[in-house]
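Handout, section 3.2

Students often ask what a structure token actually looks like in practice. Rather than define it abstractly, here is a full record for Acid phosphatase. The first block is the sequence as you would receive it.
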Amino acid sequence: MAPSASLLLLPLISLFSLIFTAAVSESTIQLPTAASHHLPTAASHHHDGAVAYDDDVYCDSWRLSVETNNAGDLASNKPLRCRQYVEDYMTGIGIQADSDMLAYAALAYAKTVDIAGDGKDAWVFDLDETLLTNLPYFRDYEFGYKTVNLTAYFDWVEMAVAPAFPASLKLYNELKELGFALIIISGRGEAQRSATERNLVNAGFTGWDRLLFGEKADTGLQMRELKSKKRLQLVKEGYRLHANYSHQWCSLVGEAMATKSFKFPNPMYYVP
Ligand SMILES: *[C@@H]1O[C@H](CO)[C@@H](O)[C@H](O)[C@H]1NC(C)=O
Ligand SMILES: *[C@@H]1O[C@H](CO)[C@@H](O)[C@H](O)[C@H]1NC(C)=O
């Protein structure tokens, strides 16, 4: 391997091994990279008293409990019988309808916010599985039912071709029109900044105010700690956080609470 190539790869490799270690030891520590929350745990059978229902009914209930953050260990340990349901939801009209509804509610709320005009009225977006969808990647991993390959994930990120969720792109542009400072807090690492910026632009997102990534100093933080840290930093900088828009509850709790939170649907994986 040429020296320049190995230098380039070094941060990714060390990131990979650290994430991997955290994952196999089932540590609660998560690295601040998107990859760390792309590690679905193995699905398993559950004795949850609901076996009598048809899969569609059962899996609707299961998904509702995940989205409302009530699912407990069923959030990470997805029921095996819902594998097809998750695929159908993610590839069909289900997530489209839900994300349209969510964006509609978010815009209605956004219109009630007084924009001061000093550029500090902020709307915080999560990145992966909220603005961008990694669905083409997850197809190879049974929509979260098969353990992901992190090397392949980093390759996918470098391709910068993750599509936008149409409802999120539309909302993003409407918020920009309204005068919000658009802030993206990503669980990806700084090493992925340039690919991520390219991807956002490819997918139609422009004009963000801040795009924040996990940094070296954040290594070892859980995702919720990382997101809280970034939000507190924003508040110190004078931003008023009016809303959170994320596919993970861990990004919607913690300190520096925004006025309102919007949970974007994601039955594929759960970050504790
Ligand atoms: C993971 O993906 C990389 C890159 O695509 C590939 O070279 C490697 O063989 C894969 N590892 C496994 C265990 O499948
Ligand atoms: C919503 O997002 C903001 C910004 O990410 C964050 O500070 C907050 O903790 C999240 N949740 C709530 C309830 O505000």
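Discussion prompt for tutorial groups: Residues 1-46 have pLDDT under 50 and may be disordered. How would you have guessed this from the sequence alone?
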